[in-house]
Design brief:
single chain; about 240 residues; alpha/beta; eight-stranded mixed beta sheet; about 15% strand; globular; oxidoreductase activity; oxidoreductase
Length: about 240
């Protein structure tokens, strides 16, 4: 009986990072589950499962895991590549409505939390040889202020703490957790992010033998690079 192909579940399958990660993992023998609002399940193939999902609803996260497990098996790599932001005037962050903050926080934190819960539940059923890796696509907002981006900054900060805690808590079980943040070579944020660079990093992180630095600041063509914490306004 042939061995089952490993599975990656990508939550948030946009045209840049999401699709690049899907291509990279598929080219290396993974079955791919893609979950996003824009996808049509009818376009699925025997190697890629499309799961229409709205991550402002945490139950859609649970559904995505259930679907991919039913069709391909338990994912050994989970990528949370979803983000939300409601913009405010730069000089009035509290113009943000509570409704918008609540929606963005659900997408940036609560659904990511549910995804991590689901991932850990699955990792416990996989052999030690499996990748058992959870990666959250982040940005600089967990350490810096970007005017107009209050809701996303709250979300990225909360998610970064969750990933930090998980990386520490699960290290003895050899589950790996990462917060990925692409930067320019000088450490400043890179706004035009490179999907293929993310995909290459995510592959390396998933197949590293042990947990590396949970906050994966990285530079295209270089990989992981540690920068001094900014803790400043980027206005």
């Amino acid at each position: 009986m042939a061995a089952r192909s490993p599975v990656v579940l990508i939550l948030g399958a946009g045209p840049n990072i999401g699709q690049a990660v899907a291509r990279t993992f598929a080219s290396k023998g993974y079955k791919v589950g893609l979950a996003a609002r824009s996808l049509k399940e009818a376009d699925s193939t025997d190697k890629q499962l499309n799961i229409p999902s709205d991550f402002s609803k945490t139950e859609d996260v649970v559904n995505a895991f259930a679907k991919v497990k039913e069709v391909f098996g338990i994912p050994s790599v989970v990528v949370y590549n979803v983000s939300a932001a409601s913009f405010t005037p730069a000089d009035d962050p509290f113009a943000l409505s509570l409704a918008d903050l609540s929606r963005d926080t659900t997408i940036n934190i609560y659904s990511a939390f549910v995804a991590a819960q689901q991932a850990v539940s699955g990792f416990a059923q996989l052999p030690a040889s499996a990748a058992r890796t959870f990666i959250y696509t982040g940005n600089v907002l967990n350490v810096s202020i970007l005017p107009r981006f209050l809701s996303q900054g709250i979300g990225k900060s909360g998610a970064a703490h969750m990933i930090w805690a998980a990386a520490d808590a699960y290290k003895d079980r050899e589950y790996k957790f990462y917060y990925a943040d692409e930067r320019k070579p000088d450490g400043s944020p890179k706004y035009r992010i490179d999907g293929d660079a993310h995909a290459n990093l995510y592959w390396e992180l998933a197949h590293g033998e042990t947990q590396g630095p949970w906050m994966q600041t990285f530079v295209t063509g270089v990989g992981y690079k540690k920068f001094d914490t900014i803790y400043a306004s980027l206005a």
